[in-house]
Amino acid sequence: MAAFKLNGLVVEAEKGDTILDVARFYGFPIPTLCHMEGLSPYGACRLCVVEIGEGPQARLVTSCTYPIQEGLVVRTASERVVKARKMILELLLASCPQSKTIQDLAAAHEVRRQRFKQEYEDCILCGLCTRMCEEQMMAKAIGFRARGERRTIGTPFDLRSEECRLCGGCIYVCPACQLRCTYTQPEKAICGGCANLSPPCVEKEQFHDMMCYMDPCVACEITKEK
Amino acid sequence: MAKVVVASKALKPFDPAQAAKVIESQTRDHGGLISILEEIQLHYGYLPEGALRLVAEKTGRDLVDVYGVATFYRFFSLKPRGEHQISCCLGTACHVRGGALLAEEFQRQLGVKPGENTPDGKFSLETVACLGACALGPIVVGDGHYYSNVNSSRVKAIIQETLEGLKRKDPAADESLFPLTLHCPHCNHGLLDPDTPVDRQPSVRLLLAHQGRQGFLHLSRLYGSHGHSTQVEVPAGEVTDLYCPHCQALLNAPDDCPACGAARVALLLAGGGVFQVCSRRGCLEQTLDLDGRSF
Ligand code: SF4
Ligand code: SF4
Ligand code: FES
Ligand code: FES
After folding, report:
1. Is residue A31 within 6 Å of ligand 3 at its C-beta?
2. Whose CA is nearest to atom 8 of ligand 1?
């Protein structure tokens, strides 16, 4: 057990717990995007930042990956944290505004403007899908490829993977696409959590606008025309 | 003939627990994978799909991870490359000195974009971000040979020179070429450098000095091949001074080159023998002396 200060409150927690775990246990909300229970922490989205330390030593860390220590001083909603969080959401909005998850988060944190160049990424590289595939589906069919600007998610050689069992887990957890696609048979959608009233790929001509990187799509099995 | 004494290395006693730790950490950090991939690329010039699948299978890694590493590094190519490679530096220093214009000129003359091969398979063109020779920029590398302060008027000559490769033989097709393992005659250090392959083999690394400039010279270890790469550009016909990169001793042989009269460099052959090569750029004189028999 280690005792530390959480928003002024002295709390005790198991060594090895992350700040996020403990804060949530004590009822302090911290927004997250790339964190998911049952998947290993990854620290990609930075949305879960909190401030640790005091005075000039104070700094921002990602609470989903930061293990607690004896004597740690944590603030989950200081002015600096809130500002950083809003900025991260604004940047996320700039890169992937069509994501319902990001829209909801932005709304909940009162992000009212987006001052950056607007892009429409189909992936924010949060790594949820690859962790889902590896850790829960035991498939390891998809992974990160290349780096920097050219970094993408997909199967090796862009070929249909033998490891993939079309479970749909990757699409289910993806904050960017969230299984919009059900093509012509909405009732056969894998998760049913479709955010759109009409699936964007009903018209095959619009198929290339879809964001699903699974090619062919697990739901409809049409191959994208490049 | 000089006998080669193998330097005795202080071997650490074998400790199974320690070894297990090393292996474990290697496996955990995905260690070893990069050297395996390097080896494959050295052999084929690129990473064939089948080879990556085999690496995954043999090392017990997942294909996604092997593929992830192979695509992460610019050094690895998943497509076959052209016979000759030209890289234009677009690093900051080279960029401000007109590197981008040069790259455009190469694109125009070769008719390909960076990352592509010419249809005849002769050339592949690449752009790189800084080769560590910024002061000499803009830098262009043709098959491992560095050209410094390049301007557009030299593009044609560079392409031509890379194509001819200073009368280089094709190591893959020529059976008469065989690899040598060379040591410095003064300090007996091995001179092979696996990090800078020439002719797809570890190269023989020497220190080159020419008119006050210094840099590494990498020679092909294939006897009979004249492949090399260097950081210092030396005009053809100039004589250079070559030193051991380990003990800095001048490597000149007692007798001069029988063909051109310049000083020759003598290196020891593992297993006994001496290999001599001329220090004049462009002179192709080489001799191999095994126990008194010359070749
Ligand atoms: S659908 Fe395939 S790629 Fe996606 S999580 Fe399932 S096994 Fe992995
Ligand atoms: S595809 Fe979706 S889940 Fe996977 S990394 Fe991109 S945004 Fe995250
Ligand atoms: S939730 Fe912690 S970095 Fe994404
Ligand atoms: S920028 Fe070209 S060598 Fe550094």
Report:
1. no
2. A133
Residue nearest to atom 2 of ligand 2 (CA): A174
Partner residues linked to B203 by β-bridges: B193
Q: Tens digits of per-residue pLDDT, A39-61?
A: 999 999 999 999 999 999 999 99
Q: What spacing in Å lies between the alpha carbon of B85 and ligand 4's midpoint?
A: 17
pLDDT attached to residue A51: 97
Q: Is the pLDDT of residue A221 over 70?
A: no
Would the CB of A19 count as within 6 Å of ligand 1?
A: no
Residue, of B284 and B18, whose pLDDT is higher = B284
Q: How many CB pairs under 8 A join A and B?
A: 29
Domains of chain A: 2-77 (3.10.20.740), 82-120+179-225 (no CATH), 128-173 (3.30.70.20)
Contact B67 A147 (CB under 8 A): no
For the record, the structure tokens of B107 come out as 């694109």
pLDDT tens digits for range B1-33: 333 333 333 334 455 555 445 445 445 555 588
pTM of the predicted structure, to 2 decimals: 0.62
B69 touches chain A (CB under 8 A): no
List chain B residues with CB under 8 Å of A158.
none
Indicate whether residue A143 lines ligand 1 (CB < 6 A): no
- Domain at B84-164, CATH class: alpha beta
Report the residue among A167, A173, A179 best suited for mutation to probe ligand 1: largest number of ligand atoms under 8 A from its CB: A167
Predicted complex ipTM: 0.75
SS (H, E, C) chain A: CEEEEECCEEEEECCCCEHHHHHHHCCCCCCCCCCCCCCCCCCCCCCCEEEECCHHHCEEEECCCCECCCCCEEECCCHHHHHHHHHHHHHHHHHCCCCHHHHHHHHHCCCCCCCCCCCCCCCCCCCHHHHHHHHHCCCCCCEEECCHHHCEEECHHHCCCCCCCCCCHHHHHCCCCCCCCCCCCHHHCCCCCCCCCCCCCCCHHHHHHCCCCCCCCCCCCCCCCC
Q: How confident is the model at residue B75 (pLDDT cuts 50, 70, 90)?
A: confident
